[in-house]
Amino acid sequence: VQLQASGGGLVQAGGSLTLSCTVSGSIFSINAMGWYRQAPGKERELVAGIGNGAVTTYADSVKGRFTLSRDNTKRTAYLQMNSLKPEDTAVYYCKAVVYGEIYWGEGTQVTVSS
């Protein structure tokens, strides 16, 4: 199982970015997917997660600004990030739970300038 993340970059405050995470491998289903982030000097934290039933969970700091969705046919999760703030600057990591095992993708840098 491999996770390929993309979509990071540099954006001004108030701007938008969309992160994508695609799972590949010989699997039939993905239990859950999510995005975490880690800012310099801070611990990795949950940004948003989504289960099989499309129930989503968001960190309080991103509620109303970020939207997580998944396309099961493409094995891809999308994190739409709007109204970005400088404090959203971090390396964002995709996570997938497959048959009870946890997999991480390589991080993608998101930088929000003020």
Indicate the proportion of strand residues. over 45%
- What is the helical fraction, as a range of percent? under 10%
Rg on CA atoms, Å: 13 Å
Structural class: mainly beta
What sequence of helices (H) and strands (E) makes up the elements? EEEEEEEEEEE
* N-to-C CA distance: 37 Å
Q: Which shape, going by the Cα principal axes?
A: globular
Q: Can you give the mean pLDDT?
A: 94
- Sheet with the most strands, sense and barrel status: 7 strands, mixed
How many DSSP-defined strands?
A: 11
Q: What can you tell me about this protein's structure?
A:
By secondary structure, the protein is mostly beta strands. The protein has no helices and eleven strands. It has strands spanning 2-6, 9-12, 17-24, 32-38, 45-51, 56-58, 66-71, 76-81, 90-98, 101-104, 108-113. Strands 2, 4, 5, 6, 9, 10 and 11 form a seven-stranded mixed beta sheet that branches. A four-stranded antiparallel beta sheet has the order 1-3-8-7, with no helix packed on it. It is globular and about 45 Å long. The termini are far apart. The mean pLDDT is 94.
